[in-house]
Specification:
Main location: other
Family: Belongs to the ATP-dependent AMP-binding enzyme family.
Number of helices: 14
CATH class of the largest domain: Alpha Beta
Strand content: 15-25%
CATH architecture of the largest domain: 3-Layer(aba) Sandwich
Protein name: Putative acyl-coa synthetase
Pfam family, one: AMP-binding_C
Largest sheet: 9 strands, mixed
Structural class: alpha/beta
Oligomer: single chain
Low-confidence stretches: 533-541
Number of strands: 27
Keywords: Peroxisome
Length: about 550
């Protein structure tokens, strides 16, 4: 730590700034050429075959009109073919636009329009979705994995001769786009983050340095390849000699168990919400999976309750809580490898990165143990929000540190703790409240399964803290009784401005993104409709 800046305790990495994504991955994949890289059902793909598959897709795309800099929307589920189709886009000189297969027609249309994608590659099952919006977007080409009317079948790429492959020259690796991935859109419309070749390689190098991948590991491909965590994890596993077994975070628990046992899976990366659901199912079945030793959390920070549950269900050697975001292409901080993290820390700053925490009002750096906005600087960070210069400019401070928008702190040893989103802070009676503090207290109640606290505009309080609560089943108390107990619980342990002045609203489920982030905007709107509060702007009572 020096003048309010926290540096990484890990050795610096000499990030390669003269290599394109393709040249970097080829160099690493050739080291493991004869080994098995991917298992997809009955299919086995060697590292050499995977590299040739990437080359085949690259030339195939180019034969259908793809030019350097063109953007290709990837709308695929996890598979060996999807991996080669994804990474082949970048090898061809194009840029991947990640679009999860769970997107609705309208959500996909938004991404195609705002990213200005020229091509799309998808699973045949999603062809009708694209046909229904074909008049609203202009696409030069449409590719499908599997037969689909009006789409070019990528099976035709099988005849491409890879020995003639010539990689696209990328001279400006720090500015050339490799991937466009969209922010969660929890506080506004999703923005496209531009990840360069250099930033993508840097994100992979961070994973290598933190020993997420070793050639003895067997990684379950659980997170979607169309989420930045899956996208970077699977190409990293291909580079560093790790066997990937294709799976999905939507696979039934029985499929998860059989896959892990059949292939002696040692490692997995997971979103907290999907992982929590999996843990509950495994615990109820009293299943032990002795081969699974390493878990990495991405997409959102794991709570202490989730960590305790994971350590109870699995016989782990390593549980790593990571801190990353769409703007980073990977992790900006992580707990050390080979350790069982037991608290909700995201560990230390990633190699060659640095961080500071600033007062949300004055903008001055704050000391250890003081909450403020977390800012990062380092090679894995994005270049810009595509097409949004104003948002890009406001995302960085005068020293080119990225403003994460997250509230947190660091301790005297440099460990970081993420508390909340700055935009989620509630201002009640002229005091700032971090919702997580109240939420954690509510979760201690025996009847509460999930709880989110939002601020509802109020002429007396400014914003009235309002609890949106999902009850456990079966219920042992009436909702009215639980509501009173929750209000009394908060009143007994927290100061007045943190009390539930907006009351308690019971709901069936908390709306979330695929990565488990709560959609607080939706909850605020719902709270406004049903709270019965007097709203200062003359809105509903």
């Amino acid at each position: 730590m020096e003048e309010g800046v926290v540096y990484s305790p890990y050795p610096d990495i000499d990030y390669p700034d003269n290599l394109s994504f393709y040249h970097y991955t080829k160099r690493w994949m050739l080291r493991h050429s004869d080994g098995i890289a991917i298992i997809d059902g009955e299919r086995r793909v060697t590292f050499d075959a995977a590299l040739k598959g990437i080359q085949r897709y690259a030339d195939g795309y180019r034969s259908q009109g793809l030019k350097t800099g063109d953007r290709v929307c990837v709308h695929l589920s996890n598979s060996a073919e999807a991996m080669m189709a994804c990474y082949g886009v970048i090898a061809a000189g194009g840029a991947v636009v990640l679009a999860k297969p769970t997107l609705t027609r309208g959500e996909l249309l938004y991404i195609l329009r705002t990213s200005r994608a020229s091509f799309i590659v998808l699973d045949a099952i999603h062809a009708e979705k694209v046909r229904s919006i074909s008049d609203e977007v202009s696409l030069k080409g449409k590719f499908s994995l599997g037969p689909a009317d009006g789409f070019f079948p990528v099976a035709n790429f099988q005849s491409v001769e890879t020995s003639l492959f010539k990689p696209c020259a990328i001279s400006e690796t720090k500015s050339a786009t490799a991937v466009l991935t969209y922010t969660s859109g929890t506080t506004g419309l999703p923005k496209a983050t531009d990840i360069s070749h250099y930033a993508l390689i840097s994100a992979m190098e961070v994973m290598r340095c933190l020993k997420l991948f070793e050639d003895k590991d067997v990684l379950l491909a659980w997170n979607p390849i169309t989420h930045i965590s899956g996208f970077v994890f699977y190409i990293s596993s291909l580079c560093y000699g790790t066997l990937s077994v294709v799976g999905s975070n939507r696979m039934p628990v029985e499929g998860f168990i059989s896959t892990v046992n059949a292939h002696k899976v040692t490692s997995m990366c997971a979103f907290p919400t999907a992982f929590q659901k999996l843990l509950v199912q495994l615990e109820s079945l009293q299943v032990k999976l002795p081969s699974l030793k390493k878990v990495f959390i991405a997409g959102a920070v794991a709570t202490e309750a989730l960590i305790r549950k994971a350590l109870k269900v699995f016989e782990l050697d390593s549980f790593q809580n990571g801190y990353g975001m769409s703007e980073a292409g990977g992790f900006l901080a992580m707990t050390p490898p080979g350790q069982l993290t037991r608290e909700a820390t995201v560990g230390f700053v990633a190699p060659s990165c640095k961080c500071k925490v600033i007062d949300v009002v004055t903008g001055r750096a704050v000391p250890a143990g003081t909450d403020g906005e977390i800012l990062f600087q380092g090679p894995p960070l994005f270049t810009r929000y595509d097409g949004e210069p104003q948002a890009t400019s406001s995302a960085f401070d005068k020293d080119s540190f990225f403003r994460t928008g997250d509230l947190g702190s660091y301790d005297s040893e440099g460990r970081f703790y993420v508390k909340d989103r700055i935009k989620d802070m509630i201002k009640c009676l002229d005091n700032q409240i971090a919702p997580a503090e109240v939420e954690n207290l509510l979760l201690s109640h025996a009847e509460v399964a999930e709880a989110v606290v939002v601020g509802v505009p109020h002429e007396d309080y400014g914003e009235a803290p309002t609890a949106m609560v999902v009850l456990k089943e079966p219920r042992h108390s009436s909702p009215d009784q639980v509501a009173e107990e929750l209000k009394e619980l908060v009143q007994s342990q927290l100061t007045e401005y943190k009390h539930l002045h907006g009351g308690v609203i019971f709901i069936e489920a908390i709306p979330k993104t695929d990565s488990g982030k709560c959609l607080r905007r939706e909850l605020r709107q719902r709270a406004l409709k049903v709270s019965g509060l007097c709203v200062a702007d003359g809105g509903p009572y």
